[in-house]
Design a protein that fits this description.
mainly alpha, 2 domains
């Protein structure tokens, strides 16, 4: 009987230890699952960024670079009107292209995601938006040259319609041509996320608003726009990251007249000036981080998506 009582006392202790052990095993399993991703991010994101910051303080001479820490490259960047001007040009073109992609992409996404009732047709229209990506990026960029030139298709059509009498020479090898090219290339990254969010809107909400007497303007501002904002933010992040890091479009369509931070990085790397290229890379990374952080403050994507 004494033995039975001792066994009975031991059973609650064992039962209380089992959930803790199970929880510990689940925690270990969770850490084991995320470990490969953490290692990957450390090796291929965090470590290269830290190395870029470190190299930006190296001493750069005409023919070599030495791991002697100095701020000379940083002072050169922020004291030069050329490089500071390139920073402001990058920010200005980014804002214009971002606004243009929203203006062009949102109505397109609104039509595809909300007004097209057939899912098959909606998918087909989105595929049509992606078709240009089946060709090379450089081909899509260079294809704008015969379109925007003085003897290009746009000038020919405008003269045939008697809208202009002389060719417009500001369409090519200017900042405008860069903006046009980037807007066309990156607009699809705005259309896709917005169309996805619009497709998730319950049609009953819109029908109920109509039954209550709301017009399209009120329905759009009170229902459609707020519910589609996560898609706008995701599209804006996609467009912003790609436009801020651009160099090929500006080089091809501006005749190297528009100097972006990406073009400076390419030029400095080609000249083997690794320290200064690292400085520009750090500046560009910081700008991208600030932009993405600002967008993430607008909408809580983890909650909305």
């Amino acid at each position: 009987m004494g033995q039975s009582m001792s066994d009975a006392r031991a059973m609650p202790a064992t039962a209380s230890e089992t959930p803790l052990a199970g929880g510990a095993r689940r925690s270990l399993a969770s850490y084991a699952l995320i470990l490969p991703g953490v290692v990957w991010m450390l090796l291929f994101l965090v470590l290269p960024m830290l190395m870029m910051v470190y190299v930006s303080f190296w001493t750069q001479t005409t023919f070599k670079i030495e791991p002697i820490l100095t701020t000379k490259s940083w002072v050169m960047f922020f004291s030069s009107p050329t490089y500071v001007g390139a920073l402001w040009t990058t920010l200005r073109i980014w804002l214009i292209v971002l606004a243009a992609t929203i203006v062009v992409g949102y109505p397109t996404a609104l039509f595809v995601g909300l007004f097209v009732r057939s899912k098959t047709l909606s998918t087909a229209l989105l595929v049509l938006c992606v078709i240009p990506f089946w060709t090379s990026f450089l081909i899509r960029v260079l294809a704008w040259r015969p379109m925007l030139g003085e003897q290009g298709a746009i000038n020919i059509l405008l003269r045939a319609a008697h809208i202009i009498h002389q060719p417009i020479d500001a369409l090519l090898f200017t900042e405008l041509s860069v903006i046009i090219g980037m807007t066309q290339i990156y607009c699809v990254f705005m259309v896709g996320p917005i169309a996805f969010m619009l497709g998730r809107i319950d049609p009953n909400l819109i029908e109920a608003a109509r039954d209550l007497g709301a017009g399209f303007g009120r329905i759009f501002t009170r229902i459609i726009l707020p519910l589609s904002m996560p898609g706008v933010v995701v599209g804006a992040i996609f467009v912003s990251v790609m436009v801020l890091g651009e160099f090929a479009t500006s080089a091809a369509l501006s005749g190297r007249k528009v100097n972006l931070l990406g073009n400076i990085i390419v030029t400095q790397v080609g000249s083997l000036k690794w320290a200064f290229a690292a400085v520009v890379g750090v500046v560009l990374t910081v700008v991208m981080g600030i932009v993405v952080s600002l967008f993430l403050r607008i909408v809580d994507l983890r909650r909305e998506l």
